[in-house]
């Protein structure tokens, strides 16, 4: 399908040709910007411009500096592109984005400790007197409480805490908007790809780590996740304080519905879900989108505008092991997905579950102004779904040469 597969033309040969041409023509050096530019018709990407403008010696020195700052050579793809003994412009851009002074690793250690404390806290409370008499009623209440579908219990100070910025600096995570959003409208954002645990979605839209509130003033965002996450005591409170809600039709209608939702309200859906997480692999972008139309139907029913969001690098922060066909691990993944709506990819990062330090660049696209249709027809849903997929492909084509550092294949929309 020509629409589902976008060809990838960047390779070491392009870099070699560009550098040789630049050296033969004696072009002068001009500084590269750390912010990638959009690529319009007849234009070249920021990475291609850098390839033509920067002499190899400048790129090599910049990369050496980045190597000192990060302590390691960046990604196997850098080696693959290193056909002339020096890194490509893509690696130069990556080096420019590295945070120079930060201690984000400590933030991830704190996060891991906090999650372990939640698990141990529940075990202790469930078995220790007198906490036993408090924990069990709380558990029963959490199983029936519907706060997660009523907007959560947003605690703005927690969402704006500097701690989340430390987490974002680890990769680092960047948020970029193609256009400003009108705060008098309501929006449904679609996030792609899912990755293993959608870290870009959490840091960009579940917190203010990357400046969402400043980039989109007047937009009240609610990141949505599976309802099962709100059945875990204590853990659910953290999600609710961040304003994270469950991904149900009731929750979406409450926040962005024409009658209940206020102007400026927005929700973020990770469209691919558990099925897409199993396809997460560094360098590959395989989506589960072609047969996902429920979010489009909700946009039409509520009259909310659809906003495509693509997160370059989301799949690069974890390696995923694919279990053997019909193995116990594969059957367990299928069972969890079928019965609980989530699954457990066999993932590992830099050190166990510590994610790899790969940049995540999230692009928020131009909204699609869906009409209000309380009972949308299949034809309407399909038409707007096709418009959405085309908009997502446009984002990919505009930014892939600038920010898809590790890609080894084109974008696959998938089933």
Description:
Helices cover 44% and strands 12% of the residues. By secondary structure, the protein is α/β, with parallel strands linked by helices. It folds into 2 domains: 12-28 and 40-97, no CATH class; 104-412, Glycerol-3-phosphate (1)-acyltransferase, CATH 3.40.1130. The strands form 3 sheets. It has a 7-stranded mixed β-sheet, sandwiched between helices. Strand 3, helix 12 (235-241) and strand 4 form a beta-alpha-beta unit. The longest helix has 26 residues, at 378-403. It is globular, with a radius of gyration of 22 Å.
Features:
alpha/beta, two-stranded parallel ribbon, 11 strands, 12% strand, Acyltransferase, transmembrane helix, EC 2.3.1.-, membrane, acyltransferase
- Total number of distinct structural domains: 2
Q: How much helicity do the residues have?
A: 40-55%
The proportion of residues in beta strands is 5-15%
The number of E-state strands comes to 11
H/E element sequence: HHHHHHHHHEEHHEHEHEHEHEEHEEHE
- Determine Rg (CA atoms, Å): 22 Å
CATH architectural grouping of the largest domain = 3-Layer(aba) Sandwich
Low-confidence stretches: 1-56, 69-92
Pathway: Lipid metabolism; Glycerolipid metabolism; triacylglycerol biosynthesis
InterPro entries: DAGAT
Protein name: Acyltransferase
Membrane topology: Multi-pass membrane protein
Summarize the structure.
This is Acyltransferase. The chain has 415 residues and is an alpha/beta fold. Helices cover 44% and strands 12% of the residues.
């Amino acid at each position: 399908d020509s629409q589902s597969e976008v060809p990838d033309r960047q390779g070491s040969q392009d870099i070699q040709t560009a550098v040789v041409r630049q050296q033969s023509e004696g072009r002068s050096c001009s500084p590269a910007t750390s912010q990638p530019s959009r690529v319009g018709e007849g234009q070249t990407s920021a990475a291609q411009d850098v390839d033509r403008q920067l002499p190899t010696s400048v790129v090599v020195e910049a990369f050496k500096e980045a190597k000192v700052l990060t302590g390691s050579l960046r990604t196997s793809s850098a080696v693959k592109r290193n056909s002339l003994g020096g890194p490509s412009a893509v690696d130069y851009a990556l080096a420019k984005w590295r945070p120079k002074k930060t201690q984000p690793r400590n933030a991830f250690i704190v996060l891991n400790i906090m999650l372990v404390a939640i698990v141990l806290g529940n075990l202790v409370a469930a078995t220790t007197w007198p906490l036993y008499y408090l924990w069990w009623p709380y558990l029963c209440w959490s199983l029936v409480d519907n706060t997660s579908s009523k907007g959560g219990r947003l605690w703005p100070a927690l969402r704006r805490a500097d701690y989340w910025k430390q987490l974002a600096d680890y990769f680092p995570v960047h948020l970029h908007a193609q256009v400003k959003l009108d705060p008098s409208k309501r929006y449904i954002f679609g996030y792609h790809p899912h990755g293993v645990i959608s870290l870009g979605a959490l840091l960009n839209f579940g917190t203010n780590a990357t400046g969402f509130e400043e980039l989109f003033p007047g937009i009240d965002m609610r990141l949505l996740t599976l309802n099962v996450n709100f059945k875990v005591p204590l853990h659910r409170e953290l999600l609710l304080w961040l304003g994270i809600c469950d991904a149900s039709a009731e929750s979406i209608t409450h926040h962005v519905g024409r009658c209940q939702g206020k102007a400026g309200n927005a929700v973020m859906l990770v469209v691919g879900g558990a099925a897409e997480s199993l396809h997460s692999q560094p360098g590959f972008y395989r989506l589960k989108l072609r047969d996902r139309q429920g979010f489009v139907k909700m946009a039409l029913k509520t009259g909310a505008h659809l906003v495509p969001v693509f997160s370059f690098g989301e799949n690069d922060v974890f390696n995923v092991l694919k279990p053997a066909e019909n193995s116990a691990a594969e059957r367990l993944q299928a069972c969890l997905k079928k019965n609980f709506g989530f699954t457990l990819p066999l993932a590992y990062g830099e050190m166990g579950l510590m994610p790899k330090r790969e940049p995540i660049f999230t692009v928020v696209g131009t909204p699609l102004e869906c009409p209000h249709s309380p009972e949308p027809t299949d034809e309407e849903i399909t038409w707007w779904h096709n418009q959405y997929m085309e908009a997502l492909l446009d984002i990919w084509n505009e930014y892939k040469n600038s920010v898809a550092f590790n890609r080894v294949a084109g974008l696959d929309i998938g089933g």
